[in-house]
Design brief:
alpha/beta; Rossmann fold; Heat Shock Protein 90; 2 domains; five-stranded parallel sheet; five-stranded mixed sheet; 12 helices; 49% helix; elongated
């Protein structure tokens, strides 16, 4: 049989005498022993798991010996015990003998597949068993078949092919999800950009038409209005470029000086008309070199600081924006605080969504914080917000140090 070529021959009496102790050992091999699982947990990290539901005492020994170097191996003597393992483990390949103690193999595989459609299923049957392969393939959706007895090479090749199919399907599924996400974002991007580009252009067109009809010269006033519209257009185009670059370029770690970077980012936002009234303060402790992707960190800073300026409370006499940076050898933690208008509770969980715009009249394109979130994710960082309407906001950004492998 498929699993006996690895087992020394033994007589029935010795098998009977050893069955009790063997059963204890098999439980450990099946992954039920906690100590055994802890010992192999590190070794099995990242490997696919396979489960064989069998009708023979020696199956776990042979099965484990054949595949333990390449897979995390489990086995069960019944369909009932196999269901428990399936609930606890992420099984990639499931094998079942057709004749089980409590179920037909094809029926068990069908029920397991209903609970986990990604499973790759292998039905193992005796050559003399009355089973219609074409019928089971159609009704039970079996992926592979093995007839016993067979040699070790055929058995190993079938299981490895099944594992390869699982990996290929998982990769395809991941790529399809990414493709769907990209498609949805592209549709929203095209719609939003066309709408937001139109708004400042129509403003400029309206100002030009107004200037043509006016008899009194108001050149300076009209130029100021046009400048505001151009500034909106420039910000939108800049965010679009950031969105594209973040999605296309790989990480480029460089030594960063947070104090210099934050101050230069703040100075680059002079086009905001209310910025000059804001008290700005930066604290970095300690001020030392730190490695990360400069473009993406600057993208995060630009988005959060722009928001802090845009949503200032105009009724306050002392508007402020502060940035506190705490550096360790593992991470940089940035707290960016303002005393602006704050964020509605209903908007807090959506502000990092693409093209989400708040209810405030100052709302921008809905791209900035989404791009900041994408940039943080791409460098392995985290960005979150703490805010109360009418009291301001605190954005917390945690960035891993690329110089420290343990933090990545």
């Amino acid at each position: 049989m498929v699993y006996l070529w690895l087992i020394p021959a033994t007589n029935s009496s010795s098998l009977h005498n050893q069955s009790k102790s063997d059963k204890t050992d098999l439980c450990r091999m099946d992954g039920w022993g906690i100590s055994e699982r802890k010992k192999t947990e590190r070794m099995n990290a990242g490997r696919l798991s396979i489960l064989y539901v069998h009708n023979d005492l020696f199956v776990p020994i042979a099965f484990r010996a054949l595949f333990r170097k390449e897979f995390e191996v489990f086995s069960a003597p019944s369909a009932a015990e196999a269901r428990l393992i399936l609930k606890q483990q992420n099984i990639a390949v499931l094998l079942a003998d057709q004749q089980l103690s409590d179920s037909a193999g094809n029926e068990f595989l069908q029920s397991a597949s209903a609970a986990n459609p990604d499973l790759i299923k292998i039905l193992v049957f005796q050559k003399d068993q009355p089973i219609s392969l074409s019928q089971t393939a159609k009704t039970d959706r079996i992926d592979f078949y093995l007839s016993k007895p067979c040699d070790e090479f055929e058995f190993a090749t079938t299981v490895k092919n099944a594992a390869g199919l699982y990996s290929m399907q998982a990769e395809l599924k991941e790529k399809n999800l990414l493709l769907q996400k990209t498609r949805n974002e592209l549709e929203k991007f095209v719609y939003s950009i066309s709408h937001d580009l139109k708004s400042p252009l129509m403003s400029v067109k309206g100002i030009v038409n107004l200037a043509k009809t006016e008899t009194e010269y108001k050149g300076q006033e009209y130029l100021t209005m046009i400048e505001k519209s151009i500034h909106k257009l420039d910000l939108l185009l800049g965010k679009s470029v950031h969105y594209y670059q973040d999605s296309k370029t790989g990480l480029q770690p460089a030594e960063l000086r947070f104090g210099e970077m934050i101050r230069s980012t703040w100075e680059s936002l002079d086009a905001f008309e209310n910025k000059s009234a804001i008290r700005f303060q930066v604290t970095v402790q300690p001020e030392e070199a730190f490695s990360s992707d400069q473009f993406r960190v600057q993208t995060i800073l630009t988005a959060v600081l722009s928001n802090a300026i845009r949503f200032q409370d105009k009724t306050r006499t002392d508007p402020f924006v502060t940035v506190d940076v705490s550096l360790t050898k593992h991470v940089a933690t940035l707290l960016i605080e303002d005393n602006g208008t704050g964020i509605d509770h209903a908007d807090k969980n959506r502000i990092f969504s693409i093209f989400h715009k708040g209810a405030q009249p100052e709302s921008g394109s809905g791209l900035g914080l989404y791009i900041a979130k994408e940039a943080a994710d791409s460098i392995g960082g985290v960005i979150e917000v703490f805010s109360e309407k009418g009291k301001g906001s605190v954005f917390k950004v945690v960035i891993p140090n690329r110089n420290d492998p343990a933090s990545l």
